[in-house]
Amino acid sequence: MKINRKNFIRSSAAFLGTLYLNQLFAESTQKIPNSSKRKSALVIGSGLSGLYAAHLLQNSGYKVKVIEARNRIGGRIYTFQDKRSSTMGELGAEFIYGYQEHLLKLCEVLGVKIYEHSIETSMFLNGKYIPFNEVGENPRTHKILVKVTEMYTKMSDEQKEGLDKLSAANYLSYQGVDKKELFLLELKYSLYYGESLRHVSANDFIQALAKIYNKKNKIFKINGGTDSLLKAFVTHIGKQNIKVNNPVVSITQNKDKVSVKTKKGKEYKADICICTVPSSVMNQIQWSPDLTKEKKIANLQVKYGRITKIFSQFNNADWINKNWHILTDRLLQYVYATDINTSLNTGVLTLVSTGDKSDLFTSLDEWGLRTVLYSNLRNFNYNPTTSKLEQIQWVNWQHEPFIKGSYSIFSPGMYYVKEHLQKPFGRVFFAGEHIAKESGSMESCLLSVLNAVKQI
Fold first, then answer.
1. pLDDT-derived band at 4, boundaries 50, 70, 90
2. Is 119 contained in some domain?
3. Does 271 share its domain with 336?
4. How far apart are CA 140 and CA 150, in angstroms?
5. Residue range 172-228, pLDDT digits in tens
6. Dihedral in degrees, nearest 10, Cα atoms 20, 23, 24, 29
């Protein structure tokens, strides 16, 4: 290859990125024995946590098998693409934040392209459209939120444990946020949790809020869809090493091996296992010896958000504004433009509902869903007689098999639950967004894996 300035910079960046990840991994895997007796591993789950775990273990010399219950990889990453128009949308994880440094660096090292995504949120409340330039936090509310995040950085562990006993909604009300402003905060942050702030511990919320208020608050998306990250992992791991349509029914272990049996009657054995299944389904697996009482109870305590995401593609889409990011008080809480194909004059809107509103979609068939869309989108100049809804796909995450929810939620009084979730069980180690110190993101998935491999 000809060495010019561009190629030199590109090669140097890749090299430095590799060094960065190698250093992180070296720190995480320093306890993994080099003995050939521990060179096989099973990973249960092929979401981001599972694929990252398999990637790291394989790079460390392990022979790895990934076992996936569903008929596709990715877990809560799900990119949908319309074959005719090539437009795409995300029905699962989508955004990367500027403070999520490990995820950003991983994309760079794997050659996964990202781009900065501008979000200028408008509102539709009480039948009135409020443009972006008129939307903003009440100055008094903003001052309160800044104050509580600054207070949090100075809190002792004992004080944080005390804060954890309160719900985020009650704590904000106590700090002086009025009912109207609390309603708007609930509307906004339910998109992060899939539930009301009444169900979220104040400790978890303020910890996350401190990150959101971080100066590195740029937002990015992955070029070609979030599943480009999955494809990069599969290239390294090898498709033949990922077994889909294989729900795990039992995990048995002794002092030498772990044995995993699936619903298909398959049995896989290895020296170690990393289990990345959500807490919502963990106790459905038969364990021998049985999981500890503390771990079982911890799994039962974790709640998962209720989120429905809808991909909707329209022809004659001139009425769709490519900059739309609209927060509403309607059944469709969040409406944003995802992709526009100008040559075909087609446009994609992603629509999001959370909590109780999301549950209303459970019993709807496609006709019912279309009716809801027609009714709600009329507020945004949609005319079904001139712009046809060509394609519709949706995921109701709380009813997805082997997942049963969107993000994990830690309610008041669960301060020590993660300690039980993170604790290894014999030759089985645990990872997943619900186990990370700060849960609920793709970054959480990666950091939980680093914590798991540290324990091996």
1. very low
2. yes
3. no
4. 16
5. 999 999 999 999 999 999 999 999 999 999 999 999 998 877 656 789 999 999 999
6. 150
The predicted model gives 117-128 an average pLDDT of 91
Strands 408-409 and 114-116: unpaired
Same domain (yes/no): 328, 382: yes
Give the tens place of pLDDT for each residue, 377-409.
988 888 888 999 999 999 999 999 999 999 999
Q: Is 366 part of a structural domain of the chain?
A: yes
CA proximity to 165, closest of 414, 447, 420, 406: 414
For residues 267-289, average pLDDT: 97
Length of the chain: 456
Asked whether residue 155 is domain-assigned, the answer is no
- Look up residue 94 and give its two tokens: 């989508």
- Concatenated DSSP letters for 379-432? GGT--TTTS-EEEEEEEEGGGSTTT-SSSEE--TT-TTHHHHHHS-BTTEEE-S
CA–CA separation, 159 and 248 (whole Å) = 41
Domain of 103, in residue numbers: 78-140+176-200+212-225+306-404
Stronger pLDDT, 20 or 272, i.e. the higher one: 272
For the beta sheet containing 63-67, the strands, ordered from the edge strand earlier in sequence to the opposite edge, are 242-243, 63-67, 40-44, 272-275, 428-430
302 Cβ contact partners less than 8 Å away, ≥ 6 residues apart: 278, 279, 280, 408, 409, 410, 414, 417, 421, 434
Q: Is the dihedral of CA 132, 138, 139, 142 positive or negative?
A: negative
- The answer on 119 and 221 residing in a single domain is yes
Closest by CA position to 281, among listed 100, 75, 74: 75
In a domain? residue 26? no
Question: In this structure, are residues 425 and 81 in contact, taking their beta carbons and an 8 Å threshold?
Answer: no
414 confidence band (pLDDT: 50, 70, 90)? very high
Structure-block tokens of residue 202: 């104040």
pLDDT confidence band for 7 (50 / 70 / 90) = very low
CB 281 within 8 A of CB 75: no
Q: N- to C-terminal Cα distance for the chain?
A: 40
What CATH number should be reported for the domain holding residue 436? 3.50.50.60
Q: Average pLDDT, stretch 417-433?
A: 97
